[in-house]
């Protein structure tokens, strides 16, 4: 009635956490996609493993999915190959791999504390796991699948020593003298059947090595075409062709429940294809990182006629000083003075006369644009400024189009 917490609440919470730890499931080998964490949780609580995998994907997008999965790989024992004895869940020594996985999970979880939305998602995810254990953790089938078998109690041998065995030995009995043929009832007992033989090991699928070999052959063939006919096929087609073959292998593996080790190769090839395509676009014959040359361009035109209509650099810097340019209208020269600067990687800096009327269109694919005190930064930045100067409109207008793919654009008054 007074709103105080029951003294048993903390004890019950500790009991729940202790039960979750002691009854943690094994990661199976027969129904895993990556490390078997989702399949282990699904078997422990008798739910569809697809739902658990979807939950991990959603949790990864929200924030805590990857650290929780790595922690599951570290604390949930591996079931081992089919037919192997189940490992002990209690008191298992932490292996070096488990320590590494736990350390990596902690490092990935640290940023979650400093983001409110990700911290909330983490608390909700952990709460759902606890609620799942409370509601379904005591189901008979799930409990039998999770709890390790209890060893048989010891028995006392005739000589007084204590022995540990599943059942005490049965003393050998011989037929009586009047029953030489062994027709006594106890002689009719047949021996207990022995343990069933372990199932033969599941043959390993050849999908992964065959797919990788085919990807290597296809990538080699495309590489020969790239070298033999420059320009006909971009270099990014080499990892792209290998990625296409691996993608086909993953599609086939989805139906045959095999080929999960192709996933890391697909990720690496996708990254290589993207980087190669980016490098080809930037460094190729017409790439923006080499178009116009490499180095710095420093110009200070003495008059409007000396201002070039375009300055271009692939990698470098363009420094244009227009303070000497007289913008006073004259007969036949009263229109705007225009110039364009294009830079791939680097920047452009323009100094204009103090009282000039300027119209600036500044762009940066990735970087920052600063025009007369106004600034924007980020990706695909654009800043348009029209400024008649401190003395107001008057004189020829100075129109500047400035563009850099990666770098900075600056326009200031001298």
From TrEMBL:
Residues 24-78 form the Phage shock protein PspC N-terminal domain. InterPro entries: Phageshock_PspC_N. Residues 142-171, 370-396 are annotated as: Disordered. Pfam families: PspC. Keywords: Membrane, Transmembrane, Transmembrane helix. The chain crosses the membrane at residues 54-76, 96-113, 210-230, 236-255, 262-283. The keyword Repeat does not apply. The keyword Transmembrane applies. This is PspC domain-containing protein.
